[in-house]
Amino acid sequence: MLTNERGVAAAKVATLPPVSRETEDSYFGDPADAPAAPMGAHFAEIPLDSITPNPRQPREVFDEDALQELVTSIQEVGLLQPVVVRQLGPARYELIMGERRWRACREAGLEAIPAIVRATDDEKLLLDALLENLHRAQLNPLEEAAAYDQLLKDFNCTHDQLADRIGRSRPQVSNTLRLLKLSPSVQRRVAAGVLSAGHARALLSVDDSEEQDRLAHRIVAEGLSVRAVEEIVTLMGSRPQTTQRSKGPRAGARVSPALSDLATRLSDRFETRVKVDLGQKKGKITVEFASMEDLERILGSLAPGEGPVLQKSLLDGESEETED
Fold first, then answer.
1. 272: containing domain
2. Most buried of 83, 251, 264, 281 (most Cβ within 10 A)?
3. Which of 110, 136, 162 represents a domain boundary (last residue)?
4. Beta strands, E only, the chain
5. Of 84, 117, 136, which residue constitutes the final position of a domain?
């Protein structure tokens, strides 16, 4: 049963004049090329079983806790905001906006739902759903990136045109689309909310997918901040430059596959760059670190207990300099 409160809200919506779609449905490019606005919208009570979800809904993950809160609210006061649908045929409708509300009404045991019915072309389904979710901030970064990518293909438009259409800046659109270049495992962490968009953007500077995965694991395991990740990535990015400036191994240095393999295994062990150099009489191992936190982490493996000692010594040294 629909409640009186929901019915009052629905009645108010029913008295609204037809909604113009001229602005919202205009094409990219010259406004003169845009088609005429579709018919106005109207209100209706529609059986839930007559509505199917939007197949191009960009949102793939629905917060279960938030959904249950909405179910409880609907059971207590009814649905106060109608969903938006388009009619496919006699007693057949497709959602444009409001899939979470539609799901909650089904779980709440309602048989019908208040809806605004309006004409929408197939190619506009994704755009309409994307705009609603962006305005509600309900898409995770990967869902948003995938929706942008699909819109670029559907409308054959530039990043600038897409940014204008959805009310975002061009750099924001471009940076979001770059998230699709992350390794699959990193993308899954971002989609699950384990990694933030800031962490993901920092990881984009790492070309090797395996290195991306290793650094993503460190971010989660150690709770690294975005700034710390950026420092680590900057340090990792200096490798090609160092190699490019070098004209070759120094005089007397031995170049051995075994030493290269050792350096690789040590790099994997300490999750940072390690160099192994062996000359005629002596050699050296260089272990790089990006920050004091990174150094303490490495010392924890090399020399347990030395990290706190080093930190105390540095703090004491800073205190003496301040007193001087």
1. 215-323
2. 83
3. 136
4. 42-47, 51-52, 83-89, 92-97, 112-117, 274-278, 283-287
5. 136
Q: What's 34's DSSP letter?
A: S
Measured CA to CA, the distance from residue 313 to residue 324 in angstroms comes to: 17
- The label of the residue with tokens 């970064």 reads 141
Nearest partner of 233 among 203, 208, 253, judged by Cα: 203
CB 120 within 8 A of CB 38: yes
**Tokens 């290195």 sit on residue:** 211
Token code pair at residue 150: 């699909």
275 forms beta bridges with: 286
- Does residue 193 form part of some domain? no
Catalogue the active-site residues.
Answer: 99
127 vs 5: CA distance, rounded Å: 31
How large is the average pLDDT for residues 117-128? 67
Q: Quick count: other Cβ atoms within 10 Å of Cβ 275?
A: 16
Question: pTM score > 0.85 for this model?
Answer: no
* CA R_g for the chain: 28
Q: Which residues share a beta bridge with 86?
A: 94
Worst-scoring range by mean pLDDT, 1-10, 160-169, 226-235? 1-10
112-117, strands of its sheet edge to edge: 42-47, 112-117, 83-89, 92-97, 51-52
CA–CA dist 164, 158 (Å, integer): 10
Contacts of 198 (CB under 8 A, 6+ apart): 226
Give tens-digit pLDDT for 146-205.
778 877 776 677 888 878 877 778 888 888 888 888 888 888 888 778 888 888 888 988
**Mean pLDDT, to the nearest integer, of 25-45?**
48
Tally of domains in the chain: 2
Q: Are strands 274-278 and 42-47 parallel, antiparallel or unpaired?
A: unpaired
